[in-house]
Design a protein that fits this description.
Radius of gyration: 36 Å
Order of helices and strands: HH
Helix content: over 70%
Oligomer: single chain
Number of strands: 0
Strand content: under 5%
Largest sheet: none
Mean pLDDT: 83
Distance between the termini: 24 Å
């Protein structure tokens, strides 16, 4: 219907114009495009995080390996340069018998293993907490994108 006084086309409340339909289709298409871009970015970020995590694990392994190699080498040099059991210094009197020395060494090794086990368990616990937080964060992102898609679809249907 034409309103002669205002010069505008008036539409009854129950009717939707062709332009409104086109606009809704365009909006829906744009929202789908944005959603697909966000999903692609999320996948790309996940892949990058996985690669980074693997690289860090490998670096940590290599550093640990080199640390123990250097420590072993240091112990060998320390014992050879200390002068113990040298012919020049003479033989030293050892107060422990061989069996006592083995028992003391075994006890010290057991203590070291217990300490390493405690440290390793603590690191594993911290890692598990970090992984759980990461999974919760990813789940919250998925929920928020799902809610956004619901809102976009609701907007399209209205």
């Amino acid at each position: 219907m034409n309103d002669a006084s205002s010069g505008h086309l008036t539409i009854s409340p129950g009717r939707v114009t062709q332009q409104d339909k086109i606009q809704r289709i365009n909006d829906h298409s744009y929202n789908q495009h944005i959603r697909k871009k966000a999903e692609a970015r999320t996948i790309q970020n996940d892949q990058m995080l996985d690669r980074t995590e693997q690289s860090i694990k490998m670096c940590l392994f290599c550093l640990t390996l080199r640390y123990f190699q250097a420590f072993k080498s240091f112990q060998k040099q320390k014992s050879s340069l200390s002068g113990e059991n040298d012919l020049i210094g003479g033989a030293r009197n050892t107060s422990l018998s061989l069996e006592q020395w083995k028992m003391a060494r075994e006890e010290a090794n057991a203590k070291k293993r217990d300490e390493l086990l405690k440290e390793t368990n603590e690191k594993a616990r911290k890692g598990a907490i970090r992984i759980q937080k990461r999974r919760e964060y990813e789940a919250s992102i998925k929920v928020s994108s799902y809610l956004c898609s619901l809102l976009c679809c609701h907007h399209f249907l209205c």
